Amino acid sequence: MDTPETFEIPSEPFSFNGKTVQLRGLTLAHIIFIVREHRPALEKLFEKAVTGQVEASGFAVAMELAEDFGPVAGRLIACGMGKPELADQMAQLPASAQIVALEIVVRLTLKQEGGLEKLMEIVTQTLIRVNQEMSRRV
Fold first, then answer.
1. How far apart are CA 59 and CA 88, in angstroms?
2. What's the pTM value of the predicted model, to 2 decimals?
3. Which of 55, 90, 124, 127 could make an SS bond with 74 (beta carbons 3.0 to 4.6 A apart)?
4. pLDDT tens digits for range 18-30
């Protein structure tokens, strides 16, 4: 029988400027953290994703985010590295490198969650529960 210690979390290498790191799909905690940190920039993207109006790719995400792309991409990439504290550093990568890294993180996230629509459903339900719990405490 497998145990949590034997789970292999899928990852892919990302190389830039002679350095290589492993990127993984985002966890639910990462996604909620990113949504909270960048809520205004992500609201329109989120609405389009829920209704299937945005392609599930790093380039499509970049185009939807426009001027907010750098900071959001930096946070997504840093979370995909498992090091959210490096978000500002990852935001300084050239756009072409950010898009490549985002493609990896988005692909791995969608693969582990069962597709974009399923991921949006999970995130929506979780945020509703978190908001309900927070309003009960107030």
1. 20
2. 0.70
3. 90
4. 999 999 998 888 8
